[in-house]
Amino acid sequence: MFSSAIAYTGLIIAYALYRWKKWHTKSRLPLPPGPKKLPLVGNLFQLPTSFEWETYAHWSEVYNSDILHVDAAGTSIIIVNSHQVAMDLFEKRSAIYSSRALTTMIQELIKFDWLFGFMAYGEPWKERRKLFQQHFHPLDTATYQPKEQEYVHKLLKALNRTPENFIEHIRHAIGAITITIAYGLDLKPVNDPYIEIAEQALIGLGAGAVPGAFLVDSIPILKYVPSWFPGAGFKRKAAFWRKWATMLVEVPFEAAQKEIASGTAKPSFVSACFNDLDESKDVEAQKIVIRDTAGNFFVGGADTSVSSINTFILQMTRNPEIQAKAQAELDRVLGPNTLPTFADEPSLPYIAAIVKEVLRWHAVTPLGVPHYLTEDDEYNGYFLPMGSIVAGNVWAILHDKNDYPDPLVFRPERFLTPDGTQLDHNVRDPLAAFGFGRRVCPGKHMATSMLYIAIASILAVFDISKAVDEEGNIIEPTGEYVSSLVSHPKPFKCSIKPRSEDAEKLISSL
Ligand code: HEM
């Protein structure tokens, strides 16, 4: 055991030395500012291990720079802390800022190599992203809005039955929307096997994607260590997670394929792609690309959207006056006891402002999904080395007080004109929530429409307030969040009750 620890340590030092020498001898320009680096380990012992985005935002003030550089034992990391730098690098220089750092754990051991959201920039990524955008186009609202509305109505019924399980109901509804849009499959109201597979697979992805969690990502040669070897627990974990990752990409796709073959398939992303198969080319190869691409819907769309809806519930619990304003708008525009449709969206500016503020106030992916720099670059007199991980600090950008005064306050009015009657287009849209450049979230239209219909429908029929314990004491939600790639509110309690008897009848009639 002791000798294997020495061997691992030796490997880390050799690797760190190699990486460090490589990017310190290349340019006479300085790296962007950041905390002082120690030999070999760089900033490894200064790097924050949770809520990194807040520390990085603070370092921007300390070092008076909206671009920072840190060195994690030989891994070069650039942090982009402002909208301007994000545009300059991710958008204007997108040809070299659009890759992803591949990790041995995610791609090779857990085998999420089919997930285009985590692929390097290149042909396989382009092919899959193009297919996704071609058959899941923002303007083709018929491909996603009816399903969103249908499952949001099911969500209202579930919330009415067992409101205390709201987190579970929201997870189920959003998971069902993404799976049914991707594959056209019917899902069970509870304990659905497709959702179970997808959620299990996400656990592996979440754990495997934590930077620095697995040594094999710094020293890829360790992947050859046999599973029984001391310290090779990562191999056993990877084997377990690989099972779910493979099921996620294969099981729903095979079910959809069967329905297409038997002529019973409902319209979906997969069925649209099958209609477009080019018989003059390799059909099996095309099916693999369709299969891989469909697997991105749940992974990209479910956990992220669930986080935002839970943030909305949390904010309604804490801010009754915002809720009352939103309900007044709904009652005025729709009439009482009427559920909203997508046609009502332009007439509901306060609801639109809540959607924006939910996305801004808590960045679902606070450091985005980091990009990877594929060539040496120079920016504002700094050297940016090829092979750097480049993280857009979405949290910092959405909490920039120049764009959003009092950034920590949840205030939908910031997105409205002073008279509150319409959206103020001079206020920066919180689009950074969806990332940047060529990798920008291709599901953002679905995400925002899902948020709109869920928020407007829930507020039309329910009152959300603080829960009360058995002794009658009010339970204050802590408002704490989990620190991870996709950041969620920690589970909290609240009360969700129909606004009136008529509202309850309306829900029951769905
Ligand atoms: C509130 C909801 C959502 C948020 C906050 C969100 C955010 C993001 C972010 C930050 C990225 C990385 C962008 C970058 O690399 O700069 C991303 C990528 C992605 N998102 Fe979303 N997303 C959401 C919903 C969705 C939905 C509903 C879908 C699918 C239907 C989806 C599919 C994807 C895919 C496939 C990628 C990978 C893109 C690529 O690497 O080329 N997302 N998303």
UniProtKB/TrEMBL annotation:
<dbReference type="InterPro" id="IPR036396">
    <property type="entry name" value="Cyt_P450_sf"/>
</dbReference>
<protein>
    <recommendedName>
        <fullName>Cytochrome P450</fullName>
    </recommendedName>
</protein>
<comment type="similarity">
    <text>Belongs to the cytochrome P450 family.</text>
</comment>
<dbReference type="GO" id="GO:0005506">
    <property type="term" value="F:iron ion binding"/>
</dbReference>
<dbReference type="InterPro" id="IPR001128">
    <property type="entry name" value="Cyt_P450"/>
</dbReference>
<keyword id="KW-0408">Iron</keyword>
<dbReference type="InterPro" id="IPR050364">
    <property type="entry name" value="Cytochrome_P450_fung"/>
</dbReference>
<dbReference type="GO" id="GO:0004497">
    <property type="term" value="F:monooxygenase activity"/>
</dbReference>
<dbReference type="InterPro" id="IPR017972">
    <property type="entry name" value="Cyt_P450_CS"/>
</dbReference>
<keyword id="KW-0503">Monooxygenase</keyword>
<feature type="binding site" description="axial binding residue">
    <location>
        <position position="441"/>
    </location>
    <ligand>
        <name>heme</name>
    </ligand>
</feature>
<dbReference type="Pfam" id="PF00067">
    <property type="entry name" value="p450"/>
</dbReference>
<keyword id="KW-0479">Metal-binding</keyword>
<dbReference type="GO" id="GO:0016705">
    <property type="term" value="F:oxidoreductase activity, acting on paired donors, with incorporation or reduction of molecular oxygen"/>
</dbReference>
<keyword id="KW-0560">Oxidoreductase</keyword>
<dbReference type="InterPro" id="IPR002401">
    <property type="entry name" value="Cyt_P450_E_grp-I"/>
</dbReference>
<keyword id="KW-0349">Heme</keyword>
<comment type="pathway">
    <text>Secondary metabolite biosynthesis.</text>
</comment>
<dbReference type="GO" id="GO:0020037">
    <property type="term" value="F:heme binding"/>
</dbReference>
